[in-house]
Amino acid sequence: MVFGLFSKKPEEKAPENLRSAFAPLGVLNTKGEDVKLGSVLSNDKPVLLWVMRRFGCPLCRGYAVELRDKVQTKADEKGVQMVALGLEMIGLEDFQKGKFWPGDIVIENPQQEVHKLLNLKRASILKILDYGMLKKGSKLQKEVGGNATEGDGLVLGGVFIMDKAGKCVYEWRQRNFKTDAGTDDILNVLDGL
């Protein structure tokens, strides 16, 4: 049937209880050691999990700074644990030295268990061709540094917030590299916790 080709796909949804779903998943700590995501996430606080793309990416660094500067104070007031999950170790050391992120940092394991659970997508190579803002010497690249070409640049991320009970109260998934969850939306969710 031809009409099926044009039907809209159902929107992806995170599991209702994210804390339970995340608990058994393997990740790496910043030393490269295997840990369970459940051992990193607080059991008695709300959690904001930012599934970022790459530690060396100027766009990711810029968004980390935006979250740090616009969301961290409210997160601290509300007792929200902020956790960033990077795809790979490449660029981690410089990311940490640059103090771009105020919270905890973990890294996907090679099986990418978190990405699979959340069904996060990969962008097409065509979408990566139009990112002149990442060129060496661009304003963004000068502000936050980084290397736009190191690592797997096609994976998309998102922001997921869970309340104290572990229930998913907010999820936002990237559809392209230029757009991230709005900090005003995130602040509104944190106000409701």
UniProtKB/TrEMBL annotation:
Gene3D superfamilies tied to this protein: Glutaredoxin (3.40.30.10)
Tree of life domain: Eukaryota
Annotated transmembrane regions: none
SUPFAM superfamilies: Thioredoxin-like
Protein name per UniProt: PRX_like2 family protein
